Amino acid sequence: MTAHTPHTPPFRDRRLPFAKRIDDLLSRLTLDEKIGFLHQFTPAVERLGIAAFRTGQEALHGVAWMGPATVFPQAVGLGATWNTDLLRRIGEAVSKETRAMRARDDRVGLNVWSPTVNLLRHPLWGRGEEGYSEDPNLTSAIATAYTRGLRGDHPTYWRTAPVLKHWLAHNNETGRDVTSSSVRPRVLNEYDLRAFRATVEAGATAGVMPAYNLVNGRPNHVSPYLREHLRTWTDQDLLVCSDAGAPSNLVDSEHYFDTHEEATAAALLAGVDSFTDHGTDSSLITARLRGALDRGLLTESDLDTAVRRQLSVRFRLGEFDREYDPYALTGDFDTPAHRALAQEAAEQAVVLLKNSAGLLPLAPDTRLAVVGLLADECKLDWYSGTLIHRSTPLEGLYERFGAQRVEFAEGVDRVLLKTSAGAFLHVPEAQAGDEVRGAEGALDPALLAGRTDLPVLTAGPAGTELALVDWGEGVLTLRAPDGRYLSVAGDGRVRASADQPGGWVVQETFRLEPHANGHLLRHIGTGHHVSVAADGVRVAETDPEVFELVVVERGEDAVARVAAQADVVLVVAGNDPHINGRETEDRTTLALPAHQERLLRAARTANPSTVLALVSAYPYAVDPAALPAVLWTAHGGQAAGTALARVLAGDVSPAGRLPQTWYADDADLPDLLDYDVIGGRQTYLYFEGTPLFPFGHGLSYASFSYADLATRTADGSLHVTFAVTNTGDMTADEVAQVYFRAVDPTVPRPRRELLAHGRVRLEPGERRELTFEVPLSAFDFWDVARDGWRREPGEYEVLAGASSEDVRLRTTVVLDGEPAAPRPVLRRGLPAADFDEQSGVAIVDRTKSSGDAVTAAGGGSGELLYRDCDFGDGATEVTVTVAGEGTVEVSPAGGPVPAVLTSKAAGSGPYDYRTLTARIVAEGVRDVRIGLRGPLRLAHVGFSG
Fold this sequence. Notes:
945 residues; six-stranded mixed β-sheet; alpha+beta; globular
């Protein structure tokens, strides 16, 4: 036995394993103290010398919300690097800066809420900038590398404790807290769970955060998948942290429970361990937990389970062993190495989409016109830190080519706003000192107030020329000559006060609404119109001003003027991450905003040698036919401009690859809420159309040849080997990609699916043999007939190349597997959600705690198909388990007539199930079609002889 001095309780004894130390500490906590541990902001327990703790520190591409830090490219840009080693190094840098920042500001947390592993299923999702890829394999590879860097490599202690976001099937902002993602078993297992699973199994993840949405009719915060899937993937204690405000949503917006005590208890029992709700005020959550205990909905043992998981993370972070914590003295912050890494990441994220006639790289003596709304911008998103260093494309090109060889035109419309009285809006000269929003750091930047220390706009005979930008769909920003954007603070006054549009509710966007002979100017953030009074300009519910928009200069005129005088024109277009596509707001179209299309058209008309550089968080549907060169990069962080300039100049050969399909038209897209990637033929896995640019696409200034593809199967893996040679004349990276497809599948399988990839740097003429080891389980699919994974025996084509469509080598392998077997419906029946095909059907919750059922979407009609059902010598009776009113039609193929079963359970609830029975005639193996009519729920269909 281990002896302890009276002054060293076991939980302080580092010689004991963490589990025993946690047991000891739990035994010392009072019930009230345990309850306090379950809110995001855990209070200190001074009698035991335990410090306060909070879950959650945003660190998606650098430490966010806590002031200046190194800012790396957006997550989607990091995904475009296809470079796991780079992501691991970035994770290390971010976690070191987290430690360094915490040393001087204890508000900085070590439980980092990052990375986001939601798959980029739909390009209009507003938060697409936060994810890595539409492909589960690539997403998990990138996320695993990043979490390993965040965790550190010490066997016991962690530098930071990463939590994966957002569990599960979360790709829409529209109604995100009330919409349900209908995810059938194959999509659930083969797609949505897959990225989470591989990352958790890698062992560097401390937990997950459930998403706001519902899946199959049940809120993610009470999902049985946390228990049935997540916690089975590792022996490690995983901490599940709720998303902000989501516990209250269970009652307030989702109306899933009648009381907050019921909702809080259900979430805790489902596996939520830390409740992020009501900011720093824990009183409501703790009161709900006490109420649940008083009502017998929870026991103290239930609380112990959740507290244990939090303590497990805190012990791993070294909180109780500070003198032995290898990361305690980490001070690396804004180091030369971190700056170089930010530039390397930005360079590796650039994707060359088109380069005809060898226009790129630019010759050293090129006279360059740089134009566009993002040409002199270094945009940040909601999850960025505050910039210490800043590089715009224009600044990078000035530095690389010399200011004397670069001309600039932003392309804004320069306007005056004239009132009905004949006066003009005027921006008074500002005397206040300069400030940058977010520089001071904030646990919740949504609470940062607008500035009121600057003068209010007035109206008079001398107007101020404003820079107007239409970001699409009539959403405008107006900028004063000093660079500050017109904004509205809490007092309702209009000032030129913001360095950039931003905030949880953006206060810098407006709409011009035609009215009489002019326009009303509506402030989008408040919904009110701009009004002009004697004491200045404000937004108000009454007395809106009617403005005349006086255009001093069109943006396209300025662009055409400089474009005509240049050898090459660079148009820098894209999005502002806070406008028309962000958290809380999905995009509505793939089209480039009309303002930017005008600028691109003007540049191209004036000078055919026009290069388009898209700097954006999302794909766009642009027509590249008339453009000799097109590039894309996500918002690239602090070194974005330098990186882009170096790529354009040929100092670096571009080697980024698209992490998601770029579709040619909105008509190619499924509905945003259609989560059935198989039935909806979504992503490169199933899309049957012609993409604008395919998944994995990206060009180089060098050329590469592929040769000698060979495969062998051994020890449960497929070993794939081939050689890549740089046949160009400059050193460059190539991203070699390996895909497969099932040659003759019995169920719909992907057109091709990524197995492995590798980014390699090759000198001119260098040849390198690449070897990939792929587990044979990668060829499995989820067989709904057996409710488990199965590999079909037969031929599989293995493809190697430079993108999902640029296949250079192929071979066929024959794999062993398990042959298909018909569904044993006499023994197992048909679980309703285990269909093969569906039309007009949604999956819903069978009960509030577990199970699935199906229903006709919108209470109308739906059709289901179940293939290869084995009725043996014959079935004569069918039984359906249903809730609600409606009709079920069961039709075995070749049968004489369908069995029609009608439920007339008027007034019953959605979980009040009953069984209905009817005669049926079926024998042998045959398909079964089921029709649903009306709003009833179908949970199960049984057959008997």
